[in-house]
Design goal:
The chain is of the alpha+beta class and 303 residues long. The chain contains four helices and 21 strands. The N and C termini lie far apart (97 Å).
């Protein structure tokens, strides 16, 4: 007996199948039109209606502005190339890591956006960041004007964000607040390390410094703070993806100045003086003109 597939479908069996197709189509449409979970909205420049992905320009060829979102402009002719918004949030600060722009928002979110294809690579929320950025409840907060409040938020956002563009290992981004430090691998936002200061102490984001493979964060411990009576008043914590962390004994007013590459100048007051720390070696650099034990050559002096 022959089999006819057309005869095997009765009107009763066709209706459920059609209903299933309608449900699937409605579900697909709802999925396509649902809002982005973080309110993301990337749009092309006003002068070009082509798709955003067609307007590829390298980070070196682009100028960026922040607030309320991220605006990308051509360095050649000043044309707006694309813009990025997050509904209900304001962009405060942006740093470039290769072809990615890492953005700090006023709601405590940190976002990486690829400047080539304008895709949003990852979002990460940092606990306590939004509260520290707003500075509500701090001394003098009620007396600040709106302009002063916005200026302080932008300054703190810049102090919080510390990118380390490591070319050998993975580049990473460290976000620092007085109460918390979090380090993310830049290519995918993977959390690689996090730390809190000792009890009674604070990190100082404004004095943190980064090298190509590490970030150095001062901590401040007021006299009498902490569980132990021997708590040092200062010190610098070193975080790196390439090596284990380190701690540098310094005074509370240490000033750090990146020298490029893996070197950072440590200025520790008139008594201790200045010295250079190499984050790749994880050690203090020998003084200028002197050779370290077993060294092949004396370190070069800065001009």
């Amino acid at each position: 007996m022959s089999f006819n597939p057309l005869r095997s479908l009765s009107p009763r069996s066709v209706l459920p199948a059609a209903a299933v197709l309608l449900v699937l189509a409605a579900g697909a449409a709802a999925h396509a039109n649902r809002p982005e979970p973080f309110g993301d909205r990337v749009v092309p420049g006003a002068s070009d209606a082509s798709p955003v992905s067609a307007q590829s320009t390298s980070a070196e060829q682009t100028d960026f502005e922040v607030g309320p979102g991220v605006e990308a402009y051509s360095k050649t002719n000043g044309e707006r190339l694309w813009s990025y918004r997050r509904e209900g949030a304001t962009a405060l600060h942006l740093a470039l890591v290769g072809e990615d722009a890492v953005v700090v928002w006023d709601d405590g979110m940190v976002t990486a956006v690829n400047t080539g294809d304008h895709s949003v690579r990852w979002h990460r929320g940092v606990p306590g960041l939004a509260d520290w950025l707003r500075a509500d409840g701090e001394p003098g907060a009620d007396d600040r004007t709106e302009g002063q409040r916005k200026k302080l938020m932008a300054e703190r956002a810049a102090a919080a964000l510390h990118p380390s563009p490591d070319r050998v290992n993975d580049a990473f981004v460290t976000v620092v607040t007085p109460d918390l430090l979090m380090g993310f691998r830049e290519r995918d936002g993977d959390l690689r390390f996090n730390s809190r200061p000792p009890a009674g102490c604070d990190f100082d984001p404004a004095r943190a410094a980064e090298t190509d493979d590490a970030v150095l964060v001062p901590r401040l411990c007021p006299p009498g703070s902490g569980a132990g009576s021997r708590q040092l008043p200062g010190g610098v914590m070193v975080f790196s993806l390439a090596d284990h962390g380190n701690f540098l004994n310094t005074g509370p007013d240490v000033v750090m100045r990146p020298l490029g590459g893996h070197r950072v100048s440590i200025e520790d007051g008139p008594v201790i003086g200045s010295w250079v720390y190499d984050t790749a070696q994880g050690s203090r650099e020998a003084a200028c003109g002197t050779a370290a034990p077993f060294a092949a050559a004396r370190p070069a002096c800065d001009k």
